[in-house]
Amino acid sequence: MDITAFLGEIITLFIMAFALGMDAFSVGLGMGLIRLRLKQIFSIGMTIGLFHMWMPLAGMMIGHFLSDTFGAIATYVGGGLLLFLGLQMIISSFKDDDQQRMITPVGFGLFIFALSVSLDSFSVGLSLGIYGAKTVMVILMFGIVSMVLSWIGLLLGRKVQNWLGTYSEVLGGCILLVFGVKLLFPL
């Protein structure tokens, strides 16, 4: 393989990984507005990175004949999950601190959170399977970039949370709502 073709493929995959990872950054920014410890931020980023690895892998393995159907479904499911998470954050911000949130970025809530931001990488994986992209390079690039971007979003959200105080969780929920609506109703 020619070195320029190889570098071109790496740059293309990085741009795709960055675009997909911006979902994780945006949602991480909103979720970072909840009081999270650094250990939680680390595990959230790792989980999102892993989801961004196995979702495109699953997409690549399933094949191109399903890409049109599952591409739209994945977008709608991801948008619905983000709407649900955003509403849940807004509602829980008006409750006493002693009451538990329905979904938090721990345990099953972390699974839902990571799934919501990685569903689009499934449909991209389907598309990349058509073109015969290098599987290992794709999943590593997608996983690492989304993990780093989610960490940046979570840490930035955590910093902003200190400035906004009690309104930060409402703002975080609104960010998730807007992002969910954007996925459900693209312009």
UniProtKB/TrEMBL annotation:
InterPro entries membership: Mntp/YtaF, Put_MntP
Q: Which Pfam families match?
A: Mntp
Origin: domain of life: Bacteria
Q: Which GO CC terms are listed, alphabetically?
A: plasma membrane
Q: What is this protein called?
A: Putative manganese efflux pump MntP
Q: Which organism is it from?
A: Bacillus timonensis
**Residues passing through the membrane, by range:** 6-29, 41-67, 73-94, 106-130, 136-157, 164-185
Q: Which UniProt keywords apply?
A: Cell membrane, Ion transport, Manganese, Membrane, Transmembrane, Transmembrane helix, Transport
Known function: Probably functions as a manganese efflux pump.
Asked if the keyword Cell membrane belongs to this entry, the reply reads yes
Would you identify the family this protein belongs to, as annotated?
A: Belongs to the MntP (TC 9.B.29) family.
Q: Which PANTHER family match?
A: MANGANESE EFFLUX PUMP MNTP-RELATED
List the subcellular locations.
Cell membrane
One GO term in the molecular function aspect is: manganese ion transmembrane transporter activity
Membrane protein topology class: Multi-pass membrane protein
